[in-house]
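User: Teach me something about this protein's shape.
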Amino acid sequence: MDPLEMMSSPTATRPMLGMTILVVEDSLFASEAMRLLCLRSGARIRRADCLRSARRHLEVYRPSAVIIDMGLPDGSGAELIEQLSQATPRVAVVAAVSGDPGSEAAARNAGADCFMSKPMTNLGVFQRTLLTHMPPEYRMTGPRPVSDERVEPDPVAYKDDMAHAAEILREAEDDAVVAYLGQFLRGVAHCAGDTGLGIAADRLDRARVQGMPLRPELARLDGLLQERIGERLAI
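Assistant: First, the predicted structure itself:
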C-alpha cells in the first residue's frame, strides 16, 4: 500500500478509506453510480472513459483497484484486464463490470478477480465484492455492519449520456460505430431501466447483424434520444 494511503485507515462505516479506485467506464450514468459507491465507502475515485485514457492514468499512478467496463469505445475491457492481470507489480484487484451476464466468462478468462453486474447500486455488494479480493493490509479486522444502502445516480448524468449517444449517431456511418452505439445504449438503458430505449438499441443491432437497412432504426433512435435530451432541458 502507498505510504500516503497508510495514513488513512479503514473504519466500519468507510471500509475503503485510503483506497484509490480507477473506474474505466464510458457511461456517465454508470460512472456516477460508481462515484457514489466509492464516496460512501471512503475510497477516492478516478475515471477513464476509454482504454487509451485508462492507460494514461496507469502511467502516472497505481490504483488500489481497477473496475473495467467490458464494452468501451476503443476496444474490449478484456484487453486491459489481461494487461493488468499479467503486469508486475500487479494492481491488487482487477474487477470487470457489465450489464451483459454473458461477458463474465470473457472477463474471467482474461484474468479478472471478480465480476460486477450492472446496474451496480448496492453498497454492501460493492464493498464485499472488492474487499474480498484485497490484500490484508487494505482490510480492517473484526466485524463490521453490512450496508444494504442503494445509491441513486443523478438523472442528469443519464441525459448527458443521451446527448453523447446523439453525437455518436450523427457519425454512425460504418459498422464499428453502429455496433458501439447499440452496445452503449443497451448498457445505459439497462442501468437506468429505460425499456423503450433498450428495445430500440436491440432493433438497431439486429438490423446491423442481418444486413438490413439501418436508416429507419437510426431515425427511431434519434427521435428517442431527442426526447430524452429535451427532458434534460426541462429539469
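Now, about its shape. Residues 1-7 have pLDDT under 50 and may be disordered. Residues 215-234 form the longest helix (20 residues). If you'd like, I can walk through any region in more detail.
User: That's plenty for now, thanks!
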